């Protein structure tokens, strides 16, 4: 039942977003009474829990706020310069729901919840440095390889500029100090290579997604912004800075399923280039068929890799560490040579992150 799905979504945000939590609990109550929320959600009553109808509802309202079309509600939204006043939040939401019911209903029915977390560029940056260094060592080269970065499940492609981000690490800034996107990397420990004296050179970048977001458009920017909980201001600001960086340095994301796309991208190994296949928080969404084909495509490409045209798989994905616990781990495999490492683990959004190199088995 829809009201229960709203309460499930409310439970997910209770700790991190009091605003979204309050909104969804009130909306669930309104749904059971057959209020305006039922009109807004008409047609979505039988949606599967996995499509998270509650977060689609909250995202659609957030979008109206970000567009400047719900000023009374915006007064509660930090992402729009407001301050939440939870006791009056729902009474200020009601007129907005009433006025925009048809538009909200259409938006909720046609969108999927989608995020793109630029904080994940920080573990990616350290992981790429490690990979280029280890691949060079294996090939007997003195200088690290240049990188061709291929991202599967790139969403809006916001992690396709790891070399153009400024990373504050201790009292140093790594990456591009002039970047509009500055990340406090929150690192404990360091990657197992010297980052201060190495330059990450990317000679090719490409991404694919089943639902690519075109972040060069206002629509794409609003789509990604609307699914960040409005009272998570640091996360929201990080996203806006990453969107600004993307406008300065566009990298299109192709509409495609990962494995089919990789067949083309990996067809010819490139000499003097380390090809890196990267994905973050995608594996759980891939179908069993896509997972099996993805493994096969990669194994095929790995067999063609040579010391001077190496291949890496670098992933940041949740892995079960206990029956009821997950850890977001950064994992690296290199071909040829058989390097297989767990480089560290961190928060789901990539920040903070702890580097601790161990075998990946
Ligand atoms: C949680 S988002 C993560 C986006 C991005 N990787 C990040 O870390 O911010 C998962 C993304 O994977 C995409 N996706 C899921 N299965 C896919 C597949 N088989 N091929 C390509 N993209 C896929 C979804 O469309 C979605 O954009």
From TrEMBL:
Protein name according to UniProt: DUF2332 domain-containing protein
User: Lineage in the entry?
Assistant: Bacteria, Bacillati, Actinomycetota, Actinomycetes, Pseudonocardiales
């Amino acid at each position: 039942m829809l009201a229960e799905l709203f309460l499930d979504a409310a439970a997910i945000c209770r700790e991190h977003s009091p605003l979204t939590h309050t909104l969804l609990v009130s909306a669930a109550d309104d749904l059971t009474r057959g209020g305006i929320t039922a009109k807004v959600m008409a047609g979505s009553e039988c949606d599967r829990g996995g499509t998270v109808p509650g977060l689609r509802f909250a995202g659609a309202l957030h979008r109206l706020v970000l567009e400047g079309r719900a000023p009374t509600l915006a007064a509660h939204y930090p992402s729009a310069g407001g301050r939440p006043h939870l006791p009056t939040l729902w009474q200020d939401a009601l007129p907005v729901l009433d006025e925009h019911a048809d538009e909200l209903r259409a938006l909720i029915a046609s969108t999927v919840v989608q995020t793109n977390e630029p904080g994940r560029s920080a573990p990616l940056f350290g992981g790429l440095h490690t990979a280029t260094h280890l691949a060079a060592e294996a090939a007997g080269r003195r200088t690290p390889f240049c990188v061709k970065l291929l991202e599967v499940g790139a969403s809006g492609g916001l992690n396709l500029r790891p070399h153009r981000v400024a990373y504050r690490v201790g009292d140093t800034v790594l990456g591009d100090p002039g970047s509009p996107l500055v990340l406090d990397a929150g690192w404990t420990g360091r990657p197992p290579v010297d980052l201060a004296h190495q330059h990450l050179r990317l000679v090719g970048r490409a991404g694919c997604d089943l639902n690519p977001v075109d972040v060069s458009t206002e629509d794409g920017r609003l789509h990604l912004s609307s699914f960040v909980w409005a009272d998570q201001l640091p996360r929201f600001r990080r996203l806006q800075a990453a969107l600004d960086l993307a406008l300065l340095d566009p990298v299109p994301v192709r509409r495609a399923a990962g494995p089919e796309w990789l067949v083309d991208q990996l067809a010819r190994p490139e000499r003097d280039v380390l090809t890196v296949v990267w994905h973050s928080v995608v594996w759980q969404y891939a179908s069993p068929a896509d997972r099996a084909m993805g493994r096969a495509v990669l194994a095929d490409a790995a067999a063609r890799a040579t010391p001077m045209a190496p291949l890496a798989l670098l992933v940041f994905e949740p892995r079960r560490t206990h029956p009821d616990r997950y850890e977001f781990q950064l994992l690296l495999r290199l071909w040829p040579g058989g390097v297989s490492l767990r480089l560290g683990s961190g928060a789901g959004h990539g920040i903070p992150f702890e580097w601790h190199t161990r075998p990946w088995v």
